[in-house]
């Protein structure tokens, strides 16, 4: 493993972060992918566990889409490979592309042992899936499509009636559509994933920062969703002045939520100017369908529609930012890199997810809330290609496997994750013991 440099926090998991982690002026999803090539020991090809694979001839044939493989060339895709496939066909196919054993140790301590927690749970899920009614996933489609239509109608009415109150409703609908579209981004390309672009964010960037980084190395120094918030919001338990600790909670956090949609958009276009548009996609144009409809059917000038669209974006960003950052990952009892981990050499990836997630009782109780509030978070992290409506059927089985391994899914209240998020922001002392999952057992 390459030596760790002087980053703060030093990863207690032994992960070497990308070189530009501490430099917000250069850290982007693209520099992260590029710099992973220096730390992952993939020898210019694709690394899975300790094998090097040449997937060049397979990239265009990949049933999940070409993009997943083309953007990850030169990196370690172990976790991505393990969690995005439910059946064993990809493993069989992979053998054909083996080139040699890797020379370097993996830059992460996560393992997927056959009899370990994650692989056992996956095998049980494969057995259970045929019992889930085929029509289950339709529920998600009906909800997201209805929300989308409502969002367009309310946004147009916001301009027609020139109502800032209605703009707040349109913003909340935009936030909900954005969150619900996340259910579709983890799979092979499909048109509903582009609903995400109405928020000015971009599917391609999200697939890197959220899916390939945050989902796989959650709350570690390699989690781009945390690094991209720094130095404004620091969720890792690092040294901070009192001004910074409380300033983050009272002033900076609300400002970050308000600009959650505009900031990545502006950064993307600054980057596009530098790289001659290589980071842009024709599908990004979907972002502008909402303001176009507001202008065409709103009955007011272009600038009026433009102004109201931005107002709706800010309201939607506030909703999305607040919900997203208080959904599941931040609480003093949740593992953040810098805390003492469960293991630095043989850390079952599924257990690392249990350590980095808390689910919320009120949200899990309603499927509408699950889809629009990043619910069923732990199961979704572990099986991201399964529709959220399918995940709802898997809880009895999940609980059984958890019991067999004497593990727990921490179920808390929404209030706990909101207050926990703020407590984590002011926290400066790392936890000296690994997460105690049983602490919340009585609440289940
Ligand atoms: C970065 C690594 C990879 C990612 C993120 C990824 C992602 C995906 C996704 C999202 C799907 C569609 C699943 C769905 O919509 O239900 C898929 C399907 C598939 N992938 Fe991959 N993949 C990766 C690497 C590979 C590799 C290396 C192979 C084999 C050499 C492979 C073989 C397959 C096959 C055979 C399917 C269709 C069958 C199935 O879903 O089990 N993938 N992949």
Number of helices: 20
Which molecules are bound in this entry? protoporphyrin IX containing FE
Low-confidence regions: 1-6
SSE arrangement, N to C: HEEHHHEEHHHHHHHHHEHEHHHHHEH
Gyration radius from CA atoms, angstroms: 22 Å
Please give the largest β-sheet: 3 strands, antiparallel
- Widest β-sheet, arrangement of strands: 1-2-3
Give the domain tally.
1
The chain-level structural class is mainly alpha
Query: What is the subunit organization of this protein?
Result: single chain
Q: Tell me, what's the shape?
A: globular
Total E-strand runs:
7
Beginning-to-end CA distance, first to last residue: 40 Å
Describe it.
The radius of gyration is 22 Å and the shape is globular. Strand 1 and strand 2 form a beta hairpin. Helix 5 (117-128) runs antiparallel to helix 19 (395-404). It has a three-stranded antiparallel β-sheet with strand order 1-2-3. It contains 20 helices and seven strands. It has one domain (115-444). The chain has 444 residues and is mainly alpha-helical. 49% of the residues lie in helices and 4% in strands. The longest helix has 24 residues, at 302-325. Bound molecules: protoporphyrin IX containing FE. The site of protoporphyrin IX containing FE has 23 residues, from helix 2, helix 3 and helix 4.
Brief digest:
It contains 20 helices and 7 strands.
For this entry, give a set of tags.
binds protoporphyrin IX containing FE, 444 residues, three-stranded antiparallel β-sheet, two-stranded parallel ribbon, mainly alpha, single chain, 20 helices
């Amino acid at each position: 493993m390459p030596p760790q440099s002087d980053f703060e926090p030093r990863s207690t998991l032994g992960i070497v972060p990308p070189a530009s982690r501490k430099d917000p002026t250069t850290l982007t999803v693209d520099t992260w992918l590029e710099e992973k090539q220096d730390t992952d020991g993939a020898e210019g090809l694709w690394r899975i566990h300790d094998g090097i694979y040449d997937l060049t001839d397979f990239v265009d044939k990949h049933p999940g889409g070409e993009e997943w493989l083309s953007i990850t060339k030169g990196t370690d895709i172990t976790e991505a490979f393990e969690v995005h496939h439910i059946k064993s066909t990809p493993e069989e196919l992979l053998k054909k592309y083996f080139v040699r054993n890797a020379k370097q140790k993996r830059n992460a301590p996560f393992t997927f042992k056959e009899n370990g927690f994650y692989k056992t749970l996956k095998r049980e899920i494969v057995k259970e899936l045929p019992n889930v009614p085929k029509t289950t996933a339709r529920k998600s489609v009906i909800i997201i499509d209805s929300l989308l239509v409502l969002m367009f109608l309310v946004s147009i009415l916001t301009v027609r009636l020139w109502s800032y109150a209605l703009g707040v409703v349109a913003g909340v609908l935009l936030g909900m559509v954005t969150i619900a579209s996340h259910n579709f981004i983890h799979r092979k390309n499909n048109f509903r994933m582009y609903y995400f672009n109405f928020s000015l964010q971009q599917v391609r960037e999200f697939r890197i920062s959220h899916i390939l980084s945050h989902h796989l190395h959650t709350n570690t120094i390699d989690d781009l969703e945390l690094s991209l918030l720094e130095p404004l919001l620091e969720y890792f338990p690092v040294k901070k002045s009192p001004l910074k600790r409380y300033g983050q909670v009272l002033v900076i956090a609300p400002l970050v939520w308000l600009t959650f949609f505009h900031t990545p958009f502006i950064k993307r276009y600054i980057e596009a100017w530098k790289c001659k548009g290589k980071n842009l996609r024709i599908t990004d144009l979907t972002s502008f369908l909402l303001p176009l409809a507001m202008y065409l059917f709103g009955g007011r000038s272009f600038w009026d529609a433009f102004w109201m669209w931005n107002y709706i974006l800010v309201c939607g960003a506030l909703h999305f930012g607040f919900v997203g950052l208080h959904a599941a990952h931040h609480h003093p009892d949740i593992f953040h890199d810098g805390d003492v981990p469960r293991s630095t050499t043989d850390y079952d990836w599924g257990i690392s997810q249990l350590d980095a997630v808390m689910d919320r009782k009120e949200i899990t109780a309603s499927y509408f809330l699950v889809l629009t509030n990043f619910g069923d978070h732990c199961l979704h992290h572990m099986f991201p290609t399964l529709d959220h409506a399918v995940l709802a059927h898997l809880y009895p089985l999940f609980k059984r496997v958890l019991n067999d391994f004497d593990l727990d899914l921490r179920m808390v209240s929404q209030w706990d994750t909101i207050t926990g998020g703020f407590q984590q922001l002011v926290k400066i002392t790392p936890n000296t013991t690994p997460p105690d999952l049983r602490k919340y057992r009585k609440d289940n």
